[in-house]
Amino acid sequence: MFAQSVTDYKRRGDRLVAHKMPMNKNGENGKKMLETTAVGSYPKPDYLVKARNAFGKGEIKEKELRELEKKATREWIKIQEDIGLDILVHGEMERGDMTTYFAEKLQGMGVSGLVRSYGNRYYRKPVVKGKLRRPKPMTVEMFKYAQSLTKKPVKGMLTGPYTMCDWSFNTYYPDRRAVVLAFAKLLHDEVADLEKAGAKYIQIDEPALSTRPDEVDLAVEAMKIVTKGIKAKTISHICYGDFKVMYPRVLDLAVDMLDLEFANSGYSNLNVFKTPKFTKGVSVGVLDIHSHRIESKEEVKRGIYKALEVFDPQQVFIDPDCGLKTRTVDEAIEKLKVMVEAVGEVKRELGIN
Ligand SMILES: [Zn+2]
Question: Quick check: pTM over 0.70?
């Protein structure tokens, strides 16, 4: 079965190498396939976790915290280069919650008191309580810093308008659509600023979409605004979604690529994407970020070959299922190493570079 797949894809791979990448807007020649990347977050080293707590208690100055965030970013860029990832992420050392980070930078937003999420977990939920405005770029400085450390592309990274709305309270706008579209307009400006700063890849995450597949139309409407006129390659990560409900409508999201989890569900969700044909690029998650266990190279390779039964190799990036921030630093590194080795072997077996 496995050997059969290899043979099939050698043949298919040869045929497909000559073709242009259909999703490519950047005028690249499309030779690159199965590029490796990561979804966004990495675990914070112990010294940064301590510094964030100390800063929360007013024990250290902001400047000190920012320096340690940069130090941790430098370390993650170096680690990714050493492992051999193709497209890097900055690792989100400066972010805690992916909506609160932006809520604290936007006018018209505040943060609630403690709210129960599930079980005994409590967190502070963002609140939209006035007209939303972006006084200045929110992610550009850290993007520029991370990109200055490497010749490899670093992704620009932000939380999408639908998720910003869904994970916030609203006490100002008349309805959810108005909130989502207000976020979309200011996030468009952020994406444009990232592009101006040199970002070749910009990821606009919509993890909330998985819990509200009935609102995919609203997310589609908003993403059109966010990416309008943008030439950088755009990606959207959707977390563990029920794609049986959302597919193929989700292909209308105005991004070049969707970034999806497959390892955690044992690749069973691949079936959903067989018909109709997947028309975008796809980042295929091959590492289960919920598990401490380090995947074997063989199981990651099997996963990649399964994905290549559904997607063409020039459509595909390979990455973990989701952000790695919940793993330990060592686990994250080991998992990424296995992933890059597995991709290298698959490419050799398929005769692609
Ligand atoms: Zn995710």
Answer: yes
